[in-house]
Amino acid sequence: MFTGKEKEAMLEKSILQKLEKIVGRDNMTTEKSDLICYSFDATQQRFLPDVALYPRSAEEVGEILKLANRERIPVVPRGAGSGFSGGSLPTMGGIALVLRRMDKILEIDEENLLAVVEPGVVTEVFQQAVEAKGLFYPPDPASLKFSTLGGNVAECAGGPRCVKYGVTRDYILGLEVVTPQGEIIHTGGRTMKGVVGYDLTRLMVGSEGTLGVVTRIIIKLLPLPEAKKTMLIVFDSIRGASRAVSRIILGRIIPTTLEFMDSTSIDVVRNATNLSIPEQAKAILIVEVDGEEELLEKQAKRILEIVAPFGVLETRVAKDKAESEDIWKLRRSISPSLRQVNPNKFNEDICVPRSKIPDMILELERISREIGVPIINFGHAGDGNIHVNVMVDLTTEGMQEKVDRALEEIFRATLSLGGTISGEHGIGTTKAPFLAMELNDPTIKYMRIIKQALDPNNILNPGKIFGFSGNE
Amino acid sequence: MAELKKQPELKDYAEQIRQCVKCGTCHAYCPIFDQERKEPLVARGKVALAQALLNKETEIDARFMDNISKCLLCGSCSDKCPNLVPVEEIVAASRREIARRKGLSLFGIGLSTTLKHPLLMKFMARMGNLFSWLVFRKVPEKSGLRLRFPAPYIRRDRTIPKVASRFLRDSHPEYIPGEPGKPTVALFTGCMANFMYPHIGEAAIDALKLLGMNIRIPKDQGCCGVPALSSGDGAAVDELTRRNFSAFNRLEADYIVTVCASCNFGLRTNLGKTGADGEGLAAKVIDIHRFLVEQGIGEKLAALPAREKKIRVTYHDPCHLRNQGITGEPRAILKALPGVDFVEMRNADQCCGLGGTFSVYHYDLTIKIGAKKAAAIRDARAELVATACPGCMMQLLDSINHAGLPNRVCHVLELVAAELKSSR
Ligand SMILES: Cc1cc2nc3c(=O)[nH]c(=O)nc-3n(C[C@H](O)[C@H](O)[C@H](O)COP(=O)(O)OP(=O)(O)OC[C@H]3O[C@@H](n4cnc5c(N)ncnc54)[C@H](O)[C@@H]3O)c2cc1C
Ligand code: SF4
Ligand code: SF4
User: Fold this and answer.
1) Does the pLDDT at position B274 exceed 80?
2) How many of the other CB atoms lie within 10 Å of CB of B363?
3) Angstrom distance (rounded) from CA B55 to CA B271
4) Residues B15 and B89 in one domain
5) How many whole angstroms from B89 Cα to the centroid of ligand 2?
6) Same domain, B75 and B22
7) Ligand 1: which of A85, A125, A147 to mutate, judged by most atoms within 8 Å of the beta carbon?
8) Chain B residue nearest residue A80, CA to CA
9) Stretch B313-333: mean pLDDT, rounded?
10) How far apart are the CA of A81 and the centre of ligand 2, in A?
11) If phi over 0 gives left and psi between -120 and 50 gives alpha, with beta otherwise, what is residue A234?
12) Is residue B63 part of a domain?
């Protein structure tokens, strides 16, 4: 059954009529079978909204928010609903504000290396459009084929290429935002520099739809790198691999991507591609470098020299695009193949300073051993962002407690190494209970003052980040 | 006769429904979502609705049925789903479940929604000369064509092939002996190649003869069951499957080849659901392009004389072949033809928009999906669009006509047959 508040607060007819006036009949639905489809995201939890709206302009969003603010109706912005932390779940019912119909690329400015887009544009669609003009938008969440740029901005999405190029935040020059009161504001602008007033752009990026609705995004672009080279390096121990990562960075080389897989990850994808992986493989690094063709060869050679002393069993440098694609397929197949291990997955995206990766791996091995739950690790070694997957069968008696204990220990270890409990997926509802582990009271209070000041009636994505009790 | 199981019920899919982790990957591949951007119309939404139906969390009201009806059963989603959720089967089972509970097939519901659509009504009021019900009456009651083109409900601006004057199975013997020691191949004609495009079936026979195959064309075979599957008519699917089982099982053929991608999907999956005997037969079903390539048609075609004049041909991937990884074989055949100058088109593997009975009730959506295809065809600058499915052929031609393009559409086998004929 659906979780959430029982429907004592169904929207009144008069309110629905007003909403319909704003967006039009075709852009609104209260049909149960439609609402069911806006009740979930990739966390797989379900909460029914009262109405789903598909606005087409900032003005419509403004009108909706004015009404919602007056009538105290919760509004939950929604992009593709691919979030891993519950950000787009309508936990308190209300309006699911679906931004998919605002999906135009308004401008690609080749002289100033920037683009202006609406929030519903799919990440990969945008990347292809700029790449066709020889330009480059680096952030590459694994969900790029379906996530929206609005959702990327609201979660500050990252991806493998972030080692070298940074995360979504680093590419957002300015925003058009509708405030919880329904006013349209502009942050940042079309210039590379700009210090007039507070940096509201940075405040909005990663705010998980709790401070405003993004209706337009000004994005910084780079020239598209000429070429890239992909390498697969197989190690005989996870420790060797994690030390190799530190050494590459110490060697003053920043590859485009530096991904790692532990031995269980390797086992689950062994048959996913044509690549043959040695039996004794205990860890794999996938390293990619990009830039000018001539320099790549040199860089690749240098990297292979650096990692050589750390128990390398085999290395493979992709000869062509197909082989590079095969190597990436290996990496991308992990997440969906994890079910082979156990049916229930608890997926955390902790991040530690890069030099601490070997220590974190040791900690994860210890926690797995002591609590007796399989923990599978892979992810973005280059920036310390590890996807930690606790794989269990929840039907086993007492398993939920073990999971809870394991997660808490994982977070504790992460924080004691100077890390953070979420590198890219956000807090939403799933990590709200752990917020206070990382942030001290005054910091949380400071954040909540901002939320209260900007959204005094707490209508915009209520209950997210700070949890239910903390927010009212 | 062997005991054949009925099509599974929705509850038999409970575990597969649970396998959907709501990741959203299917957004990137569903042709309907590509047009509408609405969650109830994408695989993930359909699976959520199937789940709600199974748990009795929702009424089966008009919108529910409309949402479940808006699926092409193309499998573009499940092909790419990281968790291998068989979305098209879940949707088909949901339609059967609706039919079971409401005593009404979706087909009927579709009719009522169409009737509410004023524009469609206008077209339908005049039956149009494109389609003659009288001719159509020659097509048997149980043929999927009747579901695909229910007589007065086809819009006048839609290009529909004519019913052939002589049907394929009527004009060929049930057994055409080949070279001794060569495999025996049963030809599953499918409705479209039997009733509307018999020359495709003839082309298939020519190609099989070229390789010396022993050919069997049982007259009592029937519709593959896709249109019935698509309209939620489980009993009809069961009956058609039984009929095909009995027509083909006794032949003890080594292979059952299909010339239609949808038939291949329908025959294989429907038989595969009936238990061990059906599964055994289903395992023999193979697409003719894959079969011809495996049996070495490449060498035969390579031996054909070279040609000065070539015609530019592009290829559209039918979903139900692409989902099985059959993308290289039809292209290999085209490239081996001396008279063909092959070019790829953009997004060749994207669905044409036909989808079982879908296009009858959601023709406006079909047109939009087809417009995208037509644009890709135009940009490929090919004279001919070849494909490997008569259903796709019909839909591609319709899209081309709507876009006012000069291109022609054909089956890969037609080009093979033409080449063989002219080199003789
Ligand atoms: C298979 C898979 C792989 C993934 N891989 C990665 C990865 O590598 N890196 C990564 O960072 N994430 C990843 N994610 C998580 C997710 O895709 C990202 O968080 C993404 O940015 C969410 O975008 P969305 O459009 O789906 O947003 P939604 O999930 O719809 O929304 C996310 C949040 O943004 C808010 N929001 C959405 N649009 C707006 C707007 N216009 N204005 C204000 N608020 C808005 C919502 O209220 C919600 O709080 C992955 C998810 C999946 C399912
Ligand atoms: S159907 Fe498959 S691709 Fe779509 S959301 Fe479910 S698991 Fe993901
Ligand atoms: S079968 Fe085709 S139309 Fe149906 S949900 Fe999947 S991709 Fe969409």
Assistant:
1) yes
2) 23
3) 28
4) yes
5) 14
6) yes
7) A147
8) B24
9) 96
10) 12
11) beta
12) yes
Domain hosting B35: range is 10-102
Beta-carbon contacts of residue A257 (< 8 Å; ≥ 6 apart)? A160, A161, A163, A164, A286, A287, A288, A380, A382
pTM: 0.91
Distance, in Å, from the CA atom of A176 to the CA atom of A186, rounded to the nearest integer, reads 5
pLDDT of residue B326: 97
- CATH architecture assignment, domain A227-335: 2-Layer Sandwich (3.30)
Does domain A342-425 correspond to CATH entry 3.30.70.2740? Answer: yes
Closest CA to B80 of B26, B34, B133: B26
Statement to judge: residues B255 and B355 lie in one domain: no
Per the structure, the count of domains in chain B is 4
Q: Which of B294, B325, B348 is where one domain is finished? A: B294
Size of interface A-B (CB pairs under 8 A): 85
Least confidently predicted of A284-293, A303-312, B107-116, B306-315: B107-116
pLDDT at B153: 52
Judge if A13-101 and A342-425 fold alike in CATH terms.
Answer: no
Is the residue at B2 inside a domain? no
Nearest CA to ligand 2 atom 6: B20
Q: Output the ligand 1 site: residues, CB below 6 A.
A: A 41-42, 76-84, 87-88, 99, 119, 141-143, 147-148, 150-152, 154-155, 157-159, 208-209, 213-214, 424-425, 461; B 23-24
Q: Which of A210, A206, A120, A247 is nearest to A466 (CA)?
A: A210
pLDDT tens digit sequence for B202-228: 999 999 999 999 999 999 998 898 888
Per-domain boundaries in chain A: 13-101, 105-223, 227-335, 342-425
A409, pLDDT greater than 90? yes
Chosen for mutation from A2, A36, A46, A430 (greatest number of chain B CBs closer than 10 Å) is A36
Same domain, yes or no: B252 and B315: no
Closest-CA residue of A relative to B50 is: A33
Q: What's the average model confidence in pLDDT over A274-281? A: 88
* Measured distance CA(B134)–CA(A99) in Å, rounded: 50
Q: Are residues B173 and B288 in the same domain?
A: yes
B369, amino acid identity: I
Amino acid sitting at position B180 = P
What does the pLDDT read at residue A472? Answer: 37
CA–centroid distance, B77 to ligand 3, in Å, is 6
Distance of CA B283 to the CA centre of its chain: 18
Is there a domain that residue B3 lies in?
no
Q: Which CATH architecture fits A13-101?
A: 2-Layer Sandwich (3.30)
User: Between residues B102 and A324, which one has the greater pLDDT?
Assistant: A324
B59 vs A32: CB contact, 8 Å cut-off?
yes
Q: Atom 21, ligand 1: which residue's CA is nearest?
A: A152
Buried b vs exposed e over B45-80: b needs ≥16 C-beta within 10 Å? Answer: bbbbbbbbbbeebbebeebbbbbbbbbbbbbbbbbb
A421: left (phi over 0), alpha (psi -120 to 50) or beta: alpha
pLDDT value for B139: 54
- Whether residues B48 and A40 touch (CB distance < 8 A) is answered with yes
Mean pLDDT, chain B, rounded, equals 86
**Is the same domain home to B97 and B117?**
no
Task: Say if the Cβ atoms of B24 and A42 lie within 8 Å.
Answer: yes
Instruction: For residue A43, give how far its alpha carbon lies from the nearest alpha carbon of chain B (Å).
Output: 8
Which residue is it, tokens 């509850």? B11
Flag if B24 and A82 touch (Cβ within 8 Å): yes
Query: Do B130 and B211 fall within a single domain?
Result: no
Q: For ligand 1, what atom is nearest to the CA of residue A152?
A: 21
* Burial class, A372, CB count within 10 angstroms (exposed 0-12 / middle 13-18 / buried 19+): exposed
CATH: 3.30.465.10, 3.30.70.20, 3.20.20.20, 3.40.50.970. Which one for A105-223? 3.30.465.10
Q: Give the dihedral of Cα atoms B347, B349, B355, B359; nearest 10 deg.
A: 20
Mean pLDDT of B124-146: 44
